Amino acid sequence: MTVKSKSSWNGEIITCGVRTCLEVNPDVSRHSIHSNEVCDRFAVAGFNANMIQYLRNELHLPLVQATNTLNNFSGTSSFTPLIGALIADSFAGRFWTITVGSILYQLGMLGVTISAILPALRPPPCPPQSPSCHQASPWQQAIFYLSLLVTAIGSGGIRPCVVAFGADQLEQDSPTQRTNRTERRWSFFNLYFFCIGLSVMLALTVVVYIQDNVGWGLGFGIPTIAMFISVIVFVFGYPLYIRKKPGGSPLIRMAQVVVAAAKKRKLDGPADVRLLYQDQELDANITTAGRLSHTKQFKFLNRAAIVTDGDKTDTGRLRPWRLSTVHRIEELKSFIRILPIWSVGILLITSAANNFTFGIIQAKTMNRHLAGDFHIPPATLLIFSAISMLLTLTIYDRLIVPLARRLNNHPDGISHLRRIGIGLAISILSNVASALVENRRRRAVHKISVFWLVPQYAVHGVAEGLASVGLMEFLYDQSPESMRSISAALYWLSISLGHYGSTMLVTMVNDFTKKTKQGSWLQNNIDKGRLDYFYWLVAGLQVFNFGYYLVCARFYVFKRLEIAGDLNLAEDAEEKGGGEAELAVAA
């Protein structure tokens, strides 16, 4: 049996499960999504964490080629979510986009697992760094890369929709419950990243050990099975989910605003902004939580809402390429405003992308002995990043945020912008630690303990728990509700561009430094290179990125939401500016 719930804003029908939305979905469906995400992230982490070792030791690829392969794969996996988000928000919906993406990811993982099991799909074994080693043949590499491509396409359906779909389960009917819903939503984001960290930690201990000591077939097979379980859990939760109706292509709506404004570029706007075109019925599917109120930025776009002759057909139907509503104009404005803050994530990923791959190579040259005959697998060191992120999220969500709420009476406790800024500042210390430890490793007469690498991983985990989670929250909160999947895709797009930027950085540094007397900083034998110089270069880029962020955050203007059509309250609140206006409108 299906029960339907109406939104108090415009009466939109939202389909729910066997009980009402408020009885089941906020808890049961949310736990189902978290269970799915644990299995999914465990699979992805176990699949990717040690991939640099597989490329180097099994396919016998050179260091730079292996590193760039992973960066390109990560970049592609983080670019496809933009396409998946458009599909979800335009017509398919988030549930079915996630389902299809998960199936494709499963098929890609299955292909990689088979290539690790069948000897014919990889070159013959040989000792690492041996001159007699042969790289994987072109067709062997082609099969492997094709499997990776399928997983990247599958990621496009999963990554942009899971967070937005999970947050959808916390929607309430009454605007008076907005503050409570906001608090639960930010706890959801923290819990979401907590689940990621927990599953990554499990993968880095269990799966990586199996890959290094038992075999790559089983090491890839376990994440593949976990992904299968993830798909089953998610699909069987179908009756419990709130499934919002797609609101049409947001890109087309934004394009219509630009075209309409350009056509009316010679017109002067009305003195009273309430004369600009509004249409609640037209915007019904994209304003379930409220309309975006008029703002004073980007005044040129306001011309798209000036009513003139010819804006409607003889039958009274709107011509959207000539006339747009204020809400649709504000959608575009909101999107434009978040881009400078979003772009900070690109250089953040560029700076951090190679630290993990190079860190694993560093760990192989260090003393990894723990007890008896047990040696710590190099990729397992990533667990310290996961642990520190888990601790950061726990302390932040349970201690810092409640305390901040009591002090400033703000539902977020600490604003997203402050959280991102603190994380960016801390991330600089991670690369500084990397440079200092690498310099120490190179100068050591005997092998130093692998635990010297722990500080750089731990600091990175703290930074990620603040900057990455804060950026995801910011994009979700400040994007229009009809573009929530796209906002999540923007997060992954920044990761994509960051990985591509990292590939370009590695290639440029390698090409430039190999012409010097000392030779390349990034040699296959890192003892002959200067990896510490590379880390210092990356730290310098992060300092620049932090300064750029401070400027962007200083001039950012928060979106303003008009609840239940109270335009006068929205206009009064606009005078207060920024986030205070949004809180005043919601009160």
From TrEMBL:
Q: Which InterPro entries match?
A: MFS_trans_sf, POT_fam
Q: Which UniProt keywords apply?
A: Membrane, Transmembrane, Transmembrane helix
Q: Does the keyword Membrane apply?
A: yes
Membrane topology per record: Multi-pass membrane protein
Which molecular-function annotations from GO does this UniProt entry contain?
transmembrane transporter activity
Name its cellular compartments. Answer: Membrane
UniProt cross-references to Pfam families, sorted A to Z: PTR2
Membrane-crossing residues?
103-122, 142-167, 188-210, 216-241, 338-363, 375-396, 457-476, 488-513, 533-551
Cellular component (GO) terms are: membrane
Q: Which family does it belong to?
A: Belongs to the major facilitator superfamily. Proton-dependent oligopeptide transporter (POT/PTR) (TC 2.A.17) family.
Q: What is this protein called?
A: Putative nitrite transporter
The organism is Dendrobium catenatum
